[in-house]
Design brief:
The chain is mainly beta. Helices cover 0% and strands 43% of the residues. The chain has no helices and 16 strands. The strands form four sheets. Strands 8-9-10-12-11 form a five-stranded mixed barrel. Strand 4 and strand 5 form a beta hairpin. It starts with a strand and ends in a 13-residue tail after the last strand. Pfam families: ECR1_N (PF14382), EXOSC1 (PF10447). InterPro entries: Csl4, EXOSC1_C, Exosome_cplx_N_dom, NA-bd_OB-fold, S1_domain. This is EXOS1 protein. It is found in: Nucleus, Nucleolus.
Amino acid sequence: MPVFAGERLCSIDDCIAGVGTYSRHGYILASLAGYVLKKNEGEELPVISVVRETEAQLLPDVGAIVTCKVTSINPRFAKVHILYVGSTPLKDKFRGTIRKEDVRATEKDKVEIYKSFRPGDIVLAKVISLGDVQSNYLLTTAENELGVVVAHSEAGAQMVPISWCEMQCPRTHAKEFRKVARVQPEYLQA
């Protein structure tokens, strides 16, 4: 939430003063105009800070639609780097995991990761649980609108979706399995 310099943020009993704040008469106040960030950093009280708009970092949140790039796969899950939250690019890299059981809504036991994603694929996914410094965000593609949106064939051409589970190379006409997203118009950018 935006605040002005000198604006009262909370009592010193509720938070610890962080960057961009100061305490006076039992309250924590903003020392600059910007946005409030509250973080629990292992202490019993959250640290409250104020950062300028350019420093405010957008974070993936539960329920957010994110665009990510597959970095590696194994039989149990795909590892990804989250690149965008909605249409906003992220300054920092966040890691995510799409588990085998979160790839699609039906026939979860028949999902094979290598038939759903390949390293380098660009995927639309939804955040289902938050990560922390040590772990990844858990993501799902178990909706028709979610899944692979951009994939390249072995010939290097951008593949074209031909069904909800296959894409085809326009050069070689080779077909490859993918969990294809049925992209909604609001996610298409010119």
